Amino acid sequence: MKTSKVRLCLASGVLLLLCTAAAHWLVPGLVPDFVRGLLAGIGTGLLVAGLLARHLPDPADASTPALRRRYMREFAPAMAGYTVAILGSIWLLKHHVDDPALRALVALSPIPFVGLAMRAMLRHIRDTDEMQRRIEVESISLATALVSLAYFAAGLLQAAKVIDVPSAMAMIWVFPMLCLVYGLAKIVIARRYG
């Protein structure tokens, strides 16, 4: 079952990236940049998720079926809400909202959904067995240390005028990078204990 889901995830990611590239090179201007960017982001996300899932231990080894169902009931709606909120806020901020207070409210609209997703993750970790909890905590700790170190190094390079990364872009990518590095760290740490 896991293998077919991983293959579907990988194939969907590749297909979306190929469609995005084809739309860009074969019929330029037909698909708006925002839509191409969205499709490329989803395709990349599916590829990364598929690659991570391929190497992670089987979820049946990590928690009970009831715990996994509860996690998905809490996590999936939060991420769906986040997706709608982030896309809606980008669109509203580009075209319709001028008042600074309202812009701040619209810009922060995805935050409650991220909070709900984090709550689902924490509840899942809290209710797993001791070994799985240890793997999760070590993975999160390692990911936090590595991303913090990379962000600090980038800040030093920015201050030395070696690189020039817009601050908004750097800040927005901290959480996704933390999630990605956490997934990679979990693969390594789970194998060490497996």
Characterize the structure shown.
- Keywords: Membrane, Transmembrane, Transmembrane helix.
- The chain crosses the membrane at residues 33-54, 75-94, 100-118, 139-158, 170-189.
- The chain is mainly alpha-helical and 194 residues long.
- The protein has three domains: 1-55; 64-128; 129-194.
- The protein has helices spanning 2-26, 33-55, 59-62, 65-95, 100-107, 111-126, 130-159, 167-172, 174-193.
- It is globular and about 50 Å long.
Short description:
84% of the residues lie in helices and 0% in strands. With 194 residues, the protein is mainly α.
What number of domains?
A: 3
Question: Which structural class do you get from the secondary structure elements?
Answer: mainly alpha
- How many DSSP-defined strands? 0
Please give the radius of gyration in angstroms.
Answer: 19 Å
Question: Which blocks of ≥5 consecutive residues have pLDDT under 50?
Answer: none
Helix coverage percent of residues?
Answer: over 70%
* Mean of all residue-level pLDDT scores: 87
The general outline is globular
* Separation, N- and C-terminal Cα atoms: 21 Å
β-strand amount: under 5%
Major pleated sheet:
none
The number of helices is 9
Q: Which sequence of SSEs, written as H and E, runs from N to C?
A: HHHHHHHHH
